[in-house]
Amino acid sequence: MSDNRFEYRIEGSDLQFVQLTLSPGTVAVGEPGSMMFMDDPVVMDTVLGDGANEGFFARIAGAVKRAFTGESMFSTLFKNPTTQPQRVAFAAPSPGKIIAIDLAANGGAIICQKGAFLGGTQGVRVGIAFKKRLRVGFFGGEGFIMQKLTGTGIAFIHASGTLSEQTLGPGESLKVDTGCLAALQTSATYDIRYVGKAKTAIFGGEGLFFAHLKGPGQVWLQSLPVQRLAKGLFAHAFSARGRSPLGRLYLVAIVIFVIASLFIEPRA
């Protein structure tokens, strides 16, 4: 696949990375810590905000918005200063799928879960998508704030587990676990609904609320939110009987690592 500034291809099945081939003089932007490898001539630079060419105070504002949406306040730029194509690759932070989204083909914006942005064309901005209804903020799996990516280039986002793309027609709706919503077009609406029965809410294991998506628009769903994976590992580590102390210690170490990865931001 290609953008007018670089070509890209997504490699792997469940542990993916995306490789970009930068045209001479072009720049790609990536989240700090996402780089997997790059050709030796590629120049890397860390900047405040989204990496766009703008004033200092605009960069400060952009950095604050990024922090609110689960990203680092800094971006890393990768520039090809040569006359030959050069490569840079970004790796996914956890098992799942990388999605390449052409923002221009999606009305110039897309809404996605917190911390989903991996990298893309220079000029892609990470903003805040506020929810109009407070119950969405209090009970939605992604919280009151989601990411809103804007621009005209390619944005790469990450979804955990297996990816399901659903296209909803006008008036069509879908009920989704709140943590399984990875991204949606701005034409689709997102609300929180009560499951309906107290018995189901308490003993059903799906929680008190689910996400209600309504078309028209495309939505991307993820099968295994990282929080659900961490919860499963944690429960398994401490409920297993007959396991050797060394085996339990090994599982606890894995659980601690997974949980820590949810809250510790990589340094620029």
From TrEMBL:
Transmembrane regions: 246-264
Signal peptide: none
InterPro entries: AIM24 (IPR002838), AIM24_sf (IPR036983), Trp_RNA-bd_attenuator-like_dom (IPR016031)
Domain of life according to the entry: Bacteria
Tagged with keyword Transit peptide: no
Gene3D superfamilies referenced in this protein's UniProt entry, alphabetically: Mitochondrial biogenesis AIM24
Keyword field contains Transmembrane: yes
Keywords per UniProt: Membrane, Transmembrane, Transmembrane helix
PANTHER family registered for this protein in UniProt: ALTERED INHERITANCE OF MITOCHONDRIA PROTEIN 24, MITOCHONDRIAL (PTHR43657:SF1), TRYPTOPHAN RNA-BINDING ATTENUATOR PROTEIN-LIKE PROTEIN (PTHR43657)
Record-given protein name: TIGR00266 family protein
Naturally occurring in which organism (per UniProt): Stenotrophobium rhamnosiphilum
